Records
---
Amino acid sequence: MSWTPGDTGFTPRGAPGPRTLIRRLREIMAAETAPQARLDALVKSIATNIVADVCSIYVRRTDDVLELFATEGLNPEAVHATRMTMSEGLVGWVARHRQMINLSDAKAHEAFSYRAETGEDPYNSFLGIPIIRSGQVLGVLVIQSVAQKGFSEDEVDGAQTVATVLAEIVSGGELLEEQDAQDVEALLHKPEHAVGTPIVPGVAMGKVVLREPEAKAHPTFAKDVAAERLRLADAIASVQKSVDDMIAADRSLFGASKEVLEVFRLFAYDKGWVRRLEEKVLAGLSAETAVEQVQEENRKRMQRVSDPYLRERLHDLDDLSRRLMRTLGGEAGDGIAVPAGAILLADSLGPVELLEYSASALGGLVLGDVSATSHAAIVARALELPMVSGVREIIEKAATGDEIALDGATGEVHLRPPGTVITAFEDKAQLRSRALARYDALKDEPAVTKDGVAVDLQMNAGLLLDMAHLEETGAKSVGLFRTELQFLLGRSLPSKADQEAFYAQVLDAAEGRPVYFRTADIGSDKRANYMRGPREANPAMGWRGLRMSLDRPGLMRTQIRALIAAAGTRPLHIMLPLVTTVEEVRLAKAEIQKEMDRHEKHVGPLPEDIQIGVMIEIPSAAWDARAMAAEADFLSIGGNDLAQFFFAADRETDEVSSRYDPLSPTFLSFLERIIREGQQGGAKVGYCGEQAADPLMTLSLLALGIDRLSVAASAIGPLKEMIRSVSFHELRDALAGMITKGGTSLREDLIIYARQAGIVLPMG
Ligand code: PEP
Ligand code: MG
């Protein structure tokens, strides 16, 4: 794949073009004139440069009225007289939709509204661009022409550059009279509130750090172009050096991504990228504004690329720009230093990047669009960083340094919270830290009911980072280690050596506690970027898990070889995902046996005990639990998949995933049969689906006689406290009664029962 950022380069267009215009804007801003005179000069210059008949600037007032502040071409009397609401006219349309509009016949648009005082009758073409800063629409830039032709792509690009510059100038207050500037300030600092998707529980309050470094703190234009050019060159050199150092140190998740970093280095040294930055500085912009604009241009161009590999490279370019911004701001180029307890806000975030932040003690995460199963979420969970996703509107409105409060259990996010909200969050945080202290005191106690029935509480993991939680939570083993994360987080298939090194580190970190390694559940929806192959219509039911492993035995054999080698003589637990038939288990065991024979013959003694478990995730396997148990050493119910197939409700589709409650009597009686049949087949039966973190699900599974429960580290303390308050025999009889009653969910009945029985239910 040969592609460099230079290929998407910024091509200087025919004169006069944005470069001349930026120079002119800079001169206007440098002149000692009153705000209105500056505005008038600005609109005149823009109209001349874009060769349009009209250029106007509308500014948004705090009462959401858009007021004409300056115009070249419309009736001058209309300035400060023409005012319209956000739902009025084309200007209102642009502000409301936060979207550009480019029309050849403005009057034909349904939103058009005629304003006689402006004298706009002769103008047909209309270009409206929102002036946006920190996610707030501050106004609208309008360009109009008599000719009925609309505006060309170059003209639109030029006008957009101007709108970005205007946004900075307007928010900086330099263009407006004092009162108007204060109004803009107020707009930018309103309290905001949203409820997003809860991803990692926990309460956090702190100052906002935007992943996208903010433009506010820097000037738009360079004071001295030659000096600015030098400053840019120094910053680029320093970023390049930091990338070199990073490669030398190989700071990565699995110590296996040198190749990835090499690609990153190619970008850092790319001549096209450096040239485009220099061009902007030579045109008069400050180095920071140049970085922002080049980054924006890259983003726009890359969004049009359909190849996922190339699109991924956009993250590299974004990352480089951020490093450059930090360097220009006086920070070290590589580390991501943030104030302790800061809350990071980002539209999206890569796992490696999050790890770089975590070293500097982040307090929480607010992301725009990241699912609970994304890599960033997995890392955040491992770091126990409270996290909420799906609140893009908050991110757009936030500025670095703003106060923010989030509750990762409920999804609530408050930006610039008022005093009452701060007090409520302080109370929540206090309650939570008291609960955490209680869980800590219980960590060496067993998970045993009041009448002496013990459950093995295990931990789910997938990263080395997770392993520290074994000690913290007192979990006795890892009941599900999702090995596919190493395959999915890296950018190429991990070699046998990479896998072996990783598993050995995991086992070392477990210090003798068993780790149930689930063989890679990849394919279909869990695809890495480097994996090719046709998209399937129903990926969840597709070519994944054990199905793929059996068709590609090389992949599975490599992993088994790595696991056996990593274990040495220590016990080894292997768990097979997405099993459909007993025959598949036999085939998988035969592959494992081949590797055991090979190891004994060529390497040395085998692990002292190799246990093979089967995950019960498909109804056909569930129905055959007794036969599965006869083939396996243990069973583990993967309730995430099992519930989606039981209810025929895709776990990734919000509209259906929460439609059916796993606490329904039908699903619970299905589970009861699996547990009973599995145990009668001679195997211990565990549950490792995420639902087990729901205390009511744990109560149900406990009543159904489950042997093991494997849950996220954060759920272990609360569940143990609850289990220790339960009387098993009473609970078992109560649940049996509820199941026979029927209905769609036993949630309410279970809550009522738990309250009556004095069971300690963890707080939400
Ligand atoms: C499950 O399906 O419940 C499970 C544990 O596997 P995963 O969530 O990784 O598919
Ligand atoms: Mg599964």
---
Amino acid sequence: MAAADHRQWITVGDTGALAKAAADRLMARIDANEARIAICLTGGSSPKQLYALLATEAYRDRIPWDRVHWFIGDERCVPPADPLNNMAMARKIFLDAYAPSSNIHPIPTDAASPDESAERYARALKSFYGADRLEDARPLFDLVLMGVGPDGHTASIFPDYPALNEAERWVVGVPKANVEPFVPRVTLTLTALASCREMLFEAAGHDKRAILARVLGGEPLPANRARSHGETVWLVDQAALPENFRGE
Ligand code: 6PG
């Protein structure tokens, strides 16, 4: 099944409102599932405020930590202690204080190559999912968080890179990044990321305005091709809104 074409655009005032809207959507996904929950986090700076909010009493006390599993959509090939490591950032801000370590699923960065890391993470995801093939009726993730880079990349899927068209594999190695930090990456593919009930993009600040104008212009950028089989939602603050914004 093709991913749904429809996207919802939600605009909010500022980064504080954006983090709160994202946290509330994350809680709604948690509340909607009484069984095991899988959330795929993202790296970069955009989700930091959201992660900090999840650590506050208002949210952390409502999260059933024993039932929520935390994954990451892409990783930079640096050791876990490196500040550039995406999962380390999430761990430091909120996960390590509240989530059981067996529920935190980082992409391994100690493998011999990004491809080997990717294979190991694909095996871990398939074991968690309980099958080698994704079924539309049973999404891999409840929620996938995403960001958009200045070149239109999302996760570590860069424009015109082979990862963009990967239809079979769930995770691939990316030997060279298109933007800083220029370290090899490992990324979930659009195929794996699409298998979710909701894909939630966060874009805030004036720096995102130019790329959002291109996204809304319909360019076939990775961030434009990333769609959930369920809901795809873009949360955008006023500063990031292109002048001609009319939603979709
Ligand atoms: C990464 C990210 C990447 C990020 C975008 C946006 O590893 O860098 O996962 O896809 O989401 O580059 O980054 P910012 O939020 O820092 O703008």
---
Amino acid sequence: MAAAKPPASVVKRLVVLVSGSGTNLQALLDAIETTGTEEYGAEIVAVGADREGIEGLARAERAGLPTFVVRVKDHATREGWDAALAEAVADHRPDLVVSAGFMKIVGKEFLARFGGRFVNTHPALLPSFPGAHGVRDALAYGARVTGCTVHFVDDGVDTGPIIAQGVVEIRDEDDESALHERIKEVERRLLVDVVGRLARNGYRIEGRKVVIP
Ligand code: GRF
């Protein structure tokens, strides 16, 4: 007799946040489609953004997913924006929230609701080169290797517990865009792998260590 499939209820609900081209989002969509939601262990239930008109949202719409946009400029204060973002995400009852090229720092309210289940991907080997220009900064520093880091978000800038990292060599002829493209190839595979393992296996955060059994 074939092994029983796990019940659909074990499939974890993901909300993915984007600000740009959404190729990391696309990698998750493709992996879930190819693997199947039950085998992968998670499904994307909605995609949110901080701006309109981006390819990341178009990818979500093509996949038939609900989308939402919460713009900073539509709110009187940064705290108001943060609370509205938290509310919009909470509407979709996610188990995990994935920041896949989401170029905003969330605040207290968001972290109060989603801390410990908010995953970010960063295009450098943290704790080196945090912030918005991780690729450019590694190149300018003259580092010989860089890469990407998938980590939980805490209240610092790219300081939360590290889940997994991928290494990319820096070539003499690299400019920011060529290097970023090579990092993103590694980053997409890493994110797909990490999110699936978190969803299927569960995890514990012990101080700075993330344990995926
Ligand atoms: C990724 O390299 C991410 O780490 C960085 O922005 C890029 C997003 O790429 N913050 P995409 O929108 O998923 O194509």
---
Amino acid sequence: MLSNKTAIVTGGTRGIGRAIVMKLSQMGANVVISYRSNEKMAQELVEEITSQGKKAIAVKGDVQNFQDAKVLMDKTLDEFGSIDILVNNAGITKDTLILRMTEDDFDSVIGTNLKGTFNCIKHAAKPMLKAKKGRIINMASVIGLIGNPGQANYAASKAGIIGLTKSVAKEFASRGITVNAVAPGFIASDMTDKLSEEQKSAIQKNIPAGNLGSVEDVASLVGYLASDESKYITGQVINVDGGMVV
Ligand code: NAP
């Protein structure tokens, strides 16, 4: 389904990003796994994929850094010759109430989540526009739609990603490139493992489906949005949240 296509997944070594890497690889894409720190985890994932007869490389870098984002795109083009799918998944939280939130708490979350998404789109745009095809999938969050106490920085970054998605979708629609955002609710991952059992059970009460989602639930939607079947869907924000925000 995605054979001869190349997909970049930022923050692809663990959590939702890893599930997306596995999904796109299973669908036949060559995958480029971007990661910031854990080289061992990245290499093990590359080995797992290549042992299945599929192609993968890992590229180290910080998406906040404009030059690192360029290197990610350049290495992808050198290795595979095209960028067909870009999944801007890398993201962090630094949760605290606004009165306690430091300037660094704010800047680092906006820098990674929002500016990181801009940086990668910016450097992927030229080759995608030249090829007149592509899929850009940005990881937002339901928190960007509804806000959350203690997450002003994170909510602002994810709301920003939604505005970025809609604008770039309009700019690229006539060039065969779709740009969509995926908004997960609460998904079991390292990010949500940080929550206490009390917090988790309080959250669960607000999810009509009654349980946290899995990383595969998010990866399934990304697989669809990356495929040719979604060619007439652009500028959308699609929630994967068990009915939490409707
Ligand atoms: P996670 O388990 O904490 O993994 C985050 C990934 O992003 C890691 O691979 C991490 O790499 C990478 N990363 C962080 N900062 C980076 C940077 N500056 N440059 C490059 N890579 C960076 O997170 P997750 O739960 O899978 O979340 C993935 C995405 O989904 C995020 O955008 C998050 O906001 C969003 N999301 C998650 C949930 C949820 O419930 N889990 C809900 C809504 C939205 P290192 O290991 O190298 O740090």
